[in-house]
Amino acid sequence: SPLSTVSKSPSRLKNPAEASARVVGPKQALIYDTTLRDGTQGEGISMSVEDKLSVFDQLVKFGFDYVEGGWPGSNPKDKDFFARCASMEDTHRDKLVAFGSTRRKFTKVEDDKQVEALITSGARSVCLVGKASLSQVENILGATPEEGLLMISDTVSYLVSKNIKVFVDLEHYFDGYLESPDYASRLVEACCSSGASAIVLCDTNGGTLPWELETFTKTAVSHPSVVENKVTVGVHCHNDIGMAVANSLAAVKGGAGLVQGCVNGVGERTGNADIVSIIGTLALKMGTQLSEGVETENLTSLSRFVDEVLNRAPDQAQPYVGSAAFAHKGGLHVSAMEKDPTSYQHIDPALVGNVRRTVVSELSGRMNIVKRLQEIGVDGNEDEPDNKDWLNERATAILTRVKKLESIGYTFEGADASVKLMMLHATKRYCPPFRVLDYSATVWDQFIDSASRVLYKKKKTGGGTPGKWGVNAASDSLDEGERATARATVKVQSLYERDWIADDPEHDGSVEKIERLEVADGNGPVDALALALKRALVPSYPFLSKVQLTDYKVRILDNEAATEAATRVLIEFTETETNRKWNTVSVDRNVISASLNALVDGYEYALLEHETFCMLCPADYDEIDIGGWE
Ligand SMILES: CC(=O)SCCNC(=O)CCNC(=O)[C@H](O)C(C)(C)COP(=O)(O)OP(=O)(O)OC[C@H]1O[C@@H](n2cnc3c(N)ncnc32)[C@H](O)[C@@H]1OP(=O)(O)O
Ligand SMILES: CC(C)C(=O)C(=O)O
Questions:
Q1: Dist CA 419 CA 425 (whole Å)
Q2: pLDDT of residue 450
Q3: Which residues of 177-206 are buried (b: 16+ CB within 10 A; e: fewer)?
Q4: Does residue 549 sit in helix, strand or coil?
Q5: Which of 207, 237, 572, 595 could lock 551 by a disulfide, CB 3.0 to 4.6 Å apart?
Q6: Does the beta carbon of 171 lie inside 6 Å of ligand 2?
Q7: Ligand 1 neighbour 171 (Cβ under 6 A)
Q8: How far is the CA of 78 from the centre of ligand 1 (A)?
Q9: How far apart are CA 121 and CA 363, in angstroms?
């Protein structure tokens, strides 16, 4: 049966005036996701059955018209996935598509195991891959042109006779069309007359140009057999020349009524068309009506969810949904954005569930800082007459400090937590919840001279097992318990029970300062310091027990200074319950000092973000003096 267009809702366009100038192509398009099939052909992508089930559920809830779940004749995992889907509600089963190939050459369709697997999968819709390139039919399949057509039409009519809706993915369609328009036309005719609901034109090698693709799609859409049988024409593009999204949209402009793609553009080689960008552009730029329930506001969360399941770091520059898609760094841009939010944004980020951000760096102007101060809520009291002066003075001091620190190797854009802390430290009445009074780190080691392959045991600096020199075989010479190790001590002063101070309006503002000295062993000095610091803080701030260090990066900034080189340390922290992450940065010629400073920032930030924590300075506590910053 022909595919009915299921659009019922009004266009998702938020700015009809702008859209009317741009309306192109059909008014409606179906969206078809193939992340679970073609997406998993991407290198490094692997999904368990549970992963597939959770992504399938989200894709259905997002409002995709069709979701290709996998190839049941390919592997036990996909077979299992379809078996699990068979007992689902109609809301899910109606959208699920099983993928597979046509019958093999010179066989009977009834005897083909792949085709049988498609039927027994229980899927109500099937997508068949069929070859559209004549030279490939001859060279790859080793079949005649007629047999190539029959492989497709036999399989389509057999599945249709089993009451299954059939899509045909015509692989290499555009290359095949260039090779032989006549064979392409006969193929379209074969699909339509055998009962396919949709033919999907595939740019399998991803090398077609948008204008070619639009023209060839128009030809297919106006094919007499397509028109007569009311067959939907779809498109499936790969990104080998970076055109997959543009090509998909060109096909819609040329009359395609169905678009296939993968969330975040995952897929074989350079990937498939990113369905996230396609949906955003169809809905917000081309005035194409999508099915009921599709809300572009859910695009960012869908994109991040899929990356999370696939264990991929999100692409910060991904159009529409990347964390940098609406981030403004240049001072001139931030200043202009304050005057007119359309000056450096093509849409309101909220339309795709994203947010505008201001990045602080050496390229900032005063307005970047004012904006960030406002974002974190430390922009003073607007009712005070001198507030503007106060804000400008603070912003100027912070800006000067940012530029100075970046000139010696800091990079603040990857360390938002450190930016926030710097701003708070420049704010009236802020004081940190704790201070490190002193610390020490000691390392002792057992090390292998790689040239002579012998093990030396030597005490380097205080503590630990007394060193002894020796010559041993590298592999079995370590005595039990004699591993490379480090020990650190940290003395902190904490403002104890600050929650209670914050809650008590009668409290006189005095504070109980607790000093605590802790020691810890670690795999290295930084590990030992992190453990000792946490140990010293957790009794006052139990919340910190939920905070973990999840990444630690060190970069030497001036190699030529050799062991005296300045070192930049970037640390990522994660709160285990919510999986929230934040980053801090510090630079020093002493890697241990840089690490300690980045650690302190990370824990301080954790406490500030912990909602019950009060950050106002108690009356008897010294305010941070930013006088020295300039
Ligand atoms: C463009 C695309 O993305 S199409 C999808 C590609 N995806 C995959 O291949 C992933 C899943 N694939 C698999 O699990 C396996 O390849 C299977 C189970 C499908 C087949 O495995 P095998 O039976 O071992 O065959 P193999 O993988 O070597 O495939 C080659 C056979 O497929 C045939 N074939 C290739 N393309 C097609 C096609 N479009 N239609 C029908 N048969 C085809 C070839 O002619 C060849 O058959 P022959 O050996 O008789 O000449
Ligand atoms: C089978 C089809 C859809 C395919 O993946 C391609 O041609 O790229």
A1: 10
A2: 56
A3: bebbeebbbbbbbbbbebbbbbbbbbbbeb
A4: strand
A5: 572
A6: yes
A7: yes
A8: 16
A9: 57
Ligand 2 pocket test: which of 202, 240, 270 has the largest number of ligand atoms within 8 Å of its C-beta? 202
Non-local CB neighbours of 445 within 8 Å, separated by 6+ positions: 458, 460, 484, 485
Q: How many residues does the chain have?
A: 630
Half-sphere exposure of 333 (CA within 13 A, CB side): 15
Enclosing H/E stretch for 439: strand 434-449
pTM of the model: 0.77
Q: Using alpha carbons only, give the angle 250, 253, 256 rounded to the nearest 5 degrees.
A: 90
pLDDT in tens, 215-250: 999 999 999 999 999 999 999 999 999 999 999 999
Using an 8 Å Cβ cutoff, are 80 and 71 in contact?
no
Cα(387)–Cα(405) distance, integer angstroms: 27
Angle at 519 between CA 514 and CA 525, to 5 degrees: 125
Q: Is 87 helix (H, G, I), strand (E, B) or coil?
A: coil
Question: Is 72 or 362 the better-scoring residue by pLDDT?
Answer: 72
Predicted confidence (pLDDT) at residue 332 exceeds the cutoff of 70: yes
Residue 478 has φ and ψ, to the nearest 5°, of: -70, 125
CA distances (Å), origin 435, targets 431, 491, 533:
9, 9, 11
Read off the tokens for 280.
């955003």
**By three-state DSSP, how is residue 487 classified?**
strand
